[in-house]
């Protein structure tokens, strides 16, 4: 008998389960000691977290005025001098039509047991590098790489999380590349340094995750903070407490019905059933802009129209009581409701419409901060496959498996992201081959975490004291010290300096680090004499610091690409011989 299938229990078993036979009026000392122990460790944990947060806060407060002066100078220099990496030109030479066909086959094959592939890893690393580039560079590169495959891109997101979606409707694949930390963006550095952990609200993830990385995605940190849709296939109830509400409606057919043509000026009525008796409405004008007809007072609103079906609902808030338009604003980021969850869902729907009846093959990648946000987003998609995760989130259930072929994630320079509960749950989903977590028509999900041997970012947040601090007590009542309870996700692939070695499915160790340190220091004179200006600069730094500068230089996405390219060349030579 399954202990959690209570519906199948006998009535007598349900009666005896947890039954209290008598009340003891005296102290249960073992229980009291356990509670004291729990309070003790909780207090220590709070003190440690408070100390860390105070140090981080103080450091950034001290840094801000200096950074403002530095950034003013850098902005002037950046406008005059823009250096474009030669990575894309080099990769373009590799992207022959024949190689594209081979790569597309790997991107779209529905396999169940796939080994680490250097071509796929290099492709994702180059796209991750492209995620950092300005729009004019991305336009040029996408056009250059297009070998009659209909390659296109779309960039979206917000401050702290920008995603470059590279796709081909013709070849039926899409890659979401999450941008990492920009070197001169102090806000993103602060996001990285915010090492406290928080629970992901509205059930979008199990366990606790890094507060900075989770917040960067823009997902809600409040329970049901946005409109709640009970089911994607029903009309919705929206509860508000503002004097003005505007609702952006994506109007379509009801499930199972064909789309009907709607007049752009058609009004969709929204009637308050509690509060003021005034009515409210919303219409689309001839230009397609949203015209708000707000109502005043506190009210719960129900979509009363039965003539249309609402595919998607996004809340937009405008202060004031006069009718206004939501107009386009010329800014780096298009305005939206501020919900990262709503944004991601909208873009997944956008993708589905782009691909029509096809089921696109979806890949995810990222570097640094982008690797962390890519990891959390991947976790959210995989969590949707569980019973608890299926209906999680503000906007209710989203059956991602019915719309996409979820293939895999490649991350580069990934910091630690979540706690033990999060990791163990995700590992179970990733490693289980049963239909419970892997639908039959879906490929086996790959999660490759590529690590340069001396990349220091892959070791943060640190877990210095190991298992004692993260698991000091096995009892369920005593919490772990969460300060050190940070973990990675995915299969580790460790790369040595310029392709000197590759270790699979094992975390890097002190032997790897020391070996890499010596290799970088010894190789410095060679790269000084033979390398480019950038190589010469790195060589001087490496030699003068006895290879220690590699702890930072190894985090550069360019180093990841170079290591993968050298390994690819070595593999090609070995196959020829």
Description:
The chain has 577 residues and is an alpha+beta fold. Among the domains are: 26-81, no CATH class; 90-221 and 336-468 and 481-508, 3-Layer(aba) Sandwich (Rossmann fold), CATH 3.40.50.1820. 38% of the residues lie in helices and 17% in strands. It contains 16 helices and 18 strands. It has helices at 11-16, 29-80, 87-94, 97-108, 118-130, 135-145, 186-193, 211-217, 340-355, 369-383, 420-431, 467-470, 510-530, 533-544, 550-553, 557-576, and strands spanning 151-158, 161-168, 173-178, 197-199, 208-210, 237-239, 246-252, 267-272, 280-284, 290-293, 300-303, 309-316, 324-326, 361-367, 405-412, 446-452, 491-495, 502-504. An eight-stranded mixed β-sheet has the order 1-2-3-14-15-16-17-18, sandwiched between helices. A six-stranded antiparallel β-sheet has the order 6-11-8-9-10-13, with no helix packed on it. It has a two-stranded antiparallel ribbon with strand order 4-5. Helix 7 crosses helix 8 (211-217) and helix 13 crosses helix 14 (533-544). The radius of gyration is 27 Å and the shape is globular. The N and C termini lie far apart (60 Å). This is Alpha/Beta hydrolase protein.
Outline of this structure?
With 577 residues, the chain is of the alpha+beta class. The chain has 16 helices and 18 strands.
